Amino acid sequence: MSAEHIATALETEIVGGTLRPGEELKQGEIAERFSVSRIPVRDALQLLAARGLIDLVPNRRARVIRLTTAEIREVYNLRILLETDCLSQAIKRMEPEDLDRISMALAHSNIDAATDSWAEGDWAFHRSLYLPAGRPRQLAMIEDLRRTCRI
Fold first, then answer.
1. Which one of 19, 35, 46, 125 has the fewest CB atoms closer than 10 angstroms to its CB?
2. Which residue ranges form the domains of the chain, and what is each CATH number?
């Protein structure tokens, strides 16, 4: 089992609330659960830390992030700045094929809205809005902030 697979499974549990903010993630328990050595678990935890979902102190512990009210405000303020700017830039560059892609993404998002995949559908729609801006770094930052908001 790969580190990416383990990270995805843990991310689903974090976002779904099974793993609560502040909860410690123990390498040994995770390794046993997934029937792997600690190496892919360590790599999975690194991936989750890079995604901003856990706090990782090397050779110590890993905990699901716990945001303060001020941090939550900051995340949403950053999202507002980045997303409105990205949309403004995208609108200037939109072509007919972009509008077709946006319409399809919206249709899929509306279907996903009634399922457990609502967040993925919502992101796919918003991503389709932002893509014409041609700003991959900004898009990655928006995606990271949106992921943080799901916790």
1. 35
2. 3-64 (1.10.10.10), 69-149 (no CATH)
